[in-house]
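User: what does the whole thing look like in 3D?
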Amino acid sequence: MTRIGVLGTGMVGTTLASRFVELGHEVVMGSRTADNEAANAWAAGQGAGAGAGTFADAARHGEVVVNATAGAASLAALAAAGTDNLAGKVLIDVANPIAGYGPPVVLDPAGDDSLAERIQREFPGTRVVKALNTMTAAVMVRPESLPGQHDAFLAGDDPSAKASVQSLLVEMGWPAGCVRDVGGITAARGLEMYLVLWLSLATSLGRYDFNIRVVG
Amino acid sequence: MTRIGVLGTGMVGTTLASRFVELGHEVVMGSRTADNEAANAWAAGQGAGAGAGTFADAARHGEVVVNATAGAASLAALAAAGTDNLAGKVLIDVANPIAGYGPPVVLDPAGDDSLAERIQREFPGTRVVKALNTMTAAVMVRPESLPGQHDAFLAGDDPSAKASVQSLLVEMGWPAGCVRDVGGITAARGLEMYLVLWLSLATSLGRYDFNIRVVG
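Assistant: Here's the predicted 3D structure for the full assembly of 432 residues, as structure tokens:
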């Protein structure tokens, strides 16, 4: 059992938080205010093992903290979570740096920086791992919902943090061999920029329930 | 038989040009000067069906023109090729907008624009199709060199131009169902930004002979 703080009350945050509870973890969902309706409704619906609070409450609770806030709001949310509450923690950064929804979607930063790197620079005592931002929430938590093998990617500077995230992914059903370590935190650039191809694919397919597999 | 102009004498240009000759097309490889050693050596080694010349010679020759120059040099190369020589032509843009090799590689433009869009804006009478920039040259021309199915992507505003490019890819061995139209020319953003993930994967795999498949 791991104590997990999930920052963000959107589809990604609630999907991940519910799956973590289902797997037996103790989850606190955090938002800007303690009286957030979505977070409290989620916690009430989960029963034991689930709570709701501020970003700081969730970060304080978690041994692992998940950033599932909107990319443009992530640095502010993490500042509210608090440097001390995040110190030493594994932070799974699932956010994408969307600056405009377009279409076409606009990313910022892109090309020479990434949101994950900005977070790592702002919180040097936190062990940031970029993960799961390359697929829709339903696929994150139930990889078996797609036929055959497909891949999840990890980027981060701390090998033990990446190992912890891989373990969580394996618990969610990811075959260990499908969780690919693609490098240090700068490799988050590629994971974030892939979002734009992912959105093009989603538009051309007319659905979100797909992923990619590395072949060869 | 199609007359094809290939701009660029690097690995991508020579690999594509050789494969086009092998498939029976008439290819002129273009470079900045008519006495380029690499281009002339390539043409001499190919025999019938292959020639070398300036960017303008290659563009004038081609019904289809391939931009296989370095991304940072592409607009200058295409300017040298000449607006009139490119008018009405299908331009397959294989280049990536690498502004610095790092690591980590730096892309420019990224996030809110793409090289292919810049080319399309600069040459509105040319039918630009972004294609094949998402894999190493050997895989572009011999998709069967990897096990199982994997995908190539097309982005461009002109459906008939995309159909022409798909036909060329099918000739090179791509199953038609593995050539995915991901949208208009703005979708080139995702194809170009994917390069960064591709490079991270290449680094972690220790090789370039891989590709991705869309699953689901």
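In plain terms: Chain B touches chain A through 48 residues (CB under 8 Å). The domain at 3-205 of chain B is CATH 3.40.50.720 (Rossmann fold).
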